[in-house]
Amino acid sequence: MRRTLLVATLTAPLALLGACGKDAPAPTSETPGAMAQALEAPPAPTSPAGGAASGALPAGHPPIGGAATPPPGPVDPSAPLPPGHPPIGGGAAPAPAPGGAAGGDEVAAGPIDVGGVHLVPPGPWMPERPASSMRLAQYRLPPAAGDTAPAVVTVIVAGGDAQSNITRWVGQFEGSPEPRVESWDAGGRKVTLVRIAGAFAQPNMQMNGPAGPATPGMVMLALIVPTDDGQSVFVKGTGPEATMNAAELGFRALVASPVKGGE
Questions:
Q1: Residue 186 bridge partners (DSSP)
Q2: Would you call 15 helix, strand, or coil by DSSP?
Q3: In the predicted model, is pLDDT for residue 41 greater than 50?
Q4: C-alpha span between 191 and 252 (Å, rounded)
Q5: What is the distance between the alpha carbons of residues 73 and 89, in angstroms, rounded to a whole number?
Q6: Are 219 and 196 within 8 A, CB to CB?
Q7: Would residue 117 count as lying in a domain?
Q8: Which of 144, 172, 175, 246 is 20 to 30 A from 153, alpha carbon to alpha carbon?
Q9: What are phi and psi of 165, to 5 degrees?
Q10: 120: pLDDT strictly greater than 60
């Protein structure tokens, strides 16, 4: 009896060991490197619902997986551009306003005060932007009945005696016609009005450049008013005869009383 119990006690642990050996996993041939790669491999991308990444991305989401950015949609040509945006589609920029001034930029009319001389331009004289920086002012005179072109009046300050300037102006007309010259006192100043009529050749603004072709039936009116500093204000206009004849009263009224500024 005692021998039977001893044998049972010794065989029970051996049976348990045999059963554990059957359930243990068999050794594999995978190397440690292969196992590490398997552990480090990222999972396949999934959609927000947990499926494969085959659905569309949300609006505005950047592309994933190296996909190209989709091209932008068509542009509505009627949609307004932001303020200050340049024109698109090869459209031309708006043309500048006549006279070199931007749209809405008008030249204000007013009296001329320079060197103690105060001149008030007549109402019919339309001020415009001077074509040269040497000009204090510039005006356009509408054509009179029978004329097709307007006249232009310029105002500058320069030196030189009156006779030298008159001689130069006469040389701008074919045949050097005899000028009509008048002088009178206005506000304590000796003013001079010159009138020259004939075929006028527009002088070239470049030094020693050839003059333009002569235009017959033209008249030049020039008013010379001395300033306090020894120079003179020259108000000179050239245009068709009828237009300039009508403007002569305006030239005379311009210096009806060229008093010193502030008096």
A1: 189
A2: helix
A3: no
A4: 10
A5: 16
A6: yes
A7: yes
A8: 175
A9: -70, -40
A10: yes
